[in-house]
Amino acid sequence: MVYTLPELPYPYDALEPYYDQETVRIHHDLHHKGYVDGLNNAAAKLTEARAAGDYSLIKHWERELAFHGAGHILHSLFWENMSPSGGGAPQGVLAQQIEQDFGSFADFKKHFSAATVAVEGSGWGLLVWNPHADRLEIMTAEKHQDLAIWGVTPLLVCDVWEHAYYLKYQNKRAAWVEAWWNLVNWPDVETRLTKARNK
Ligand code: MN
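That is the input. Now the predicted structure with manganese (II) ion docked in place:
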């Protein structure tokens, strides 16, 4: 198996009170693991299809590859984007780039929250580096893989699948997103921006 579940970079209860340990445990150990397993399975099935020369289920396994692959990538980023000592505002080059592309941090935050809360069904809010325009963009994803632009680099992601918040926040998605800002690991986001801009 090529893909493995990354360990959480902190204990299950480290993000309390904004992110309850029960949700973190289920989200990481069961949901994220499900995407890793699904991705490995899709890759194995595609290998089998090539070996057998049987492409009768190719559409299904290509879909599985995209769904679980994107799910694995976004969850890996999601955990690293949060920290027990997170929150506040970005500094340095990230703060400068946000001001340049969105006017101000306050305007960026309002736009990101509005877009993320408005995702239809299950999905994500994302801050991405767009190398086609050399700028940051706020994007949303339905499921994990829909509505993407090819080639952008996700820097900061907020999970708004119900599994991400329902135990503590029930149907109050906006309250989850508001709480999530208190966990954002801005130095991690800044490091990702610097790498993406230098590619
Ligand atoms: Mn999730």
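Residues 21-52 form the longest helix (32 residues).
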